Each structure stands twice: as C-alpha cells, then as structure tokens.
Amino acid sequence: MNKFLQLGYYTSSLPESYYRKIKRKVGKKKEKELVIAVINAVYKEFNQNHRYVMTTKNLKLSRFIPLGKVIKMKLITCATVSAIVAVVLRKMGYPTKLIHGKLKKHNGQSYHAWIEVYLKEKGGFVPFDPSLNQYKITKNHKRLGAYVDWRELQEKRKNI
C-alpha cells in the first residue's frame, strides 16, 4: 500500500507550487469528493492553458516525460493528466496507482491510462479516468498493468 504513496523517476518532478495550487483549489472534502475535486482542478488547468493534445499511439511521448516538463509544455495526454492527479493525491496521503491499459472506441482500440485511488470509505482501490473527466471506468477500459511510475512500464516494455 505504501508503495503507491511514493514518487518515481517521471512523477517526482511535479513542481511543489503546482501541487500547492491544486491543493488550495480543492480545499477539504470527503475522500471521493476530494479525488473528484483534484481531477476537476487538474483537468481545468490543462483545458484552459493547453498547447498540445496528443493521442497515446506513441507511448514514449505520452508516458515517458518528467512531469516538470509536462507542466511547462502543457502536454495533455491521458497518461500525463493521470500522473499529475496521482502525484497530487499521493502527496495528500492517498495511495494511487497509475493504470496502463487500452480503451475501446468506435474505431478500434488505443492505449489509455487512468488511476486507481485507495479510499478507506470504499475499503479498496477505486478507478477514476481523469483525462476523460470521468469518474467511472466502463466496459471499454481494459487494464493491462498497475504502476507507481511510468518508468516501471518503460522497463517492462524493454524486457518484452
């Protein structure tokens, strides 16, 4: 459980000022409402200031970029938004997994990323999809793996 409170190679570079800004915006709330407030605050930050919108066909450009650089570039992908939300929640004391998977769409499947957050009130990890601003995972989401940091996925892919 404590493993999912840690930061990793890509997630440790989130600027402290960004974390404090999001924390200030969400205030104090109950667990699930807090998670949703963090997702909304990050989503709003990216939607009002974005420069790039990318699909996840290229995992290197989607997942394997330090969050400090992501913030400067305003790089919006499912993986970057999920990683930022995960770091904010971890710093607030909520164990959070980064989930790598696929999302089935009307025109096929593409790689996709979301999070699972441990909520005491629910007694386990609960999935949320921050990049689609959704709070539920659908039957179209297919989970392939759970990670602390995208570096683990990067290493796994090298060994396949």
Condensed summary:
The chain has six helices and six strands. It is α+β, with helices and mostly antiparallel strands and 160 residues long. The protein has one domain: C8orf32 fold (Roll).
Write down the Rg: 14 Å
Strand order across the biggest sheet?
5-4-3-6
Q: Write the CATH architecture name.
A: Roll
How many beta-strand runs?
6
Shape: globular
Largest sheet: 4 strands, antiparallel
* Count of alpha and pi helical runs: 6
The total domain count is 1
CATH class: Alpha Beta
Distance between the amino and carboxyl termini: 27 Å
| Poorly predicted spans | none
Percent helix, as a range, is: 40-55%
Strand-pairing-aware structural class: alpha+beta
Strand content: 15-25%
Order of helices and strands: HHEHHEHEEEEH
Mean pLDDT: 88
CATH topology: C8orf32 fold
What does this structure look like?
With 160 residues, this protein is of the alpha+beta class. The chain has a single domain (2-158), classed as Roll (C8orf32 fold). Helices cover 41% and strands 24% of the residues. It has six helices and six strands; from the N terminus they run ααβααβαββββα. It has helices spanning 16-26, 31-49, 59-63, 67-73, 78-91, 150-158; strands at 52-53, 75-76, 96-105, 108-119, 124-128, 141-147. It has a four-stranded antiparallel sheet with strand order 5-4-3-6. It has a two-stranded parallel sheet with strand order 1-2. Strand 4 and strand 5 (124-128) form a beta hairpin. Helix 1 (16-26) packs across helix 2 (31-49) and helix 2 (31-49) packs across helix 5 (78-91). The longest helix is centred in the first third of the chain and has 19 residues, at 31-49. The radius of gyration is 14 Å and the shape is globular.
